[in-house]
Design a protein that fits this description.
Layout: H1 2-5, E1 7-11, E2 17-21, E3 27-33, E4 36-42, H2 49-64, E5 78-82, E6 101-105, E7 109-115, E8 118-124, E9 127-131, H3 138-153, H4 155-158
Parallel strand pairs: 3-5, 5-6
Antiparallel strand pairs: 1-2, 3-4, 6-9, 7-8
């Protein structure tokens, strides 16, 4: 599912449209630090979950301290932007060209969900995926969001 999202789209001077697929997933995280918007890059995002969490913590600390290098803010192929700390229920993230997709994450809230004849509280995390239709089919994008939602909803599998 990641394959289509993990690419860069370029329009050549001769008007030809090129898509560069990447073997390694480099995720950029949009963060607000020092009153400016930075995008820190996590290279090889398929690494072990613990390594990914440590890389995210390290880069976030550097971003807050204003010590990210140019190389740590460039080269991503997919951006995750979270406004959960600010609030709101949803937003429309704008694709950072030449990337072909961006995931927006809003604030999670408990909501009643009707399940097996009764309402039960469920933690809901609003996700918004924006993508370039020239590269990513809408049905495939919807499947990706469903897969991501199911994966995040199964906490035991994430540990």
């Amino acid at each position: 599912m990641w394959e289509q999202c993990n690419g860069l789209a370029h329009t050549q001077p001769n008007k030809r449209f090129l898509i560069a697929q990447h073997a390694v997933i480099d995720v950029r995280l949009a963060c607000r630090a020092c009153n400016s918007k930075l995008r820190e890059q996590i290279s090889d995002a398929w690494r072990a979950k613990g390594d990914l969490a440590r890389a995210l913590a390290t880069l976030s600390d550097k971003a807050r301290a204003g010590k990210l290098s140019a190389a740590e803010m460039q080269g991503g192929s997919f951006t995750v932007s979270s406004l959960g700390g600010i609030g709101g229920t949803a937003f429309t993230p704008i694709i950072n060209a030449p990337e072909v997709a961006i995931l927006g994450v809003s604030r999670s809230v408990h909501k009643p969900v009707f399940e097996k004849g009764a309402f039960v509280p469920r933690l809901m995390l609003p996700l918004s995926l924006s993508y370039d239709h020239r590269v990513i089919d809408g049905a495939q994008a919807a499947r990706f969001v469903v897969f991501l939602s199911q994966t995040l909803g199964d906490v035991k599998a994430l540990l």
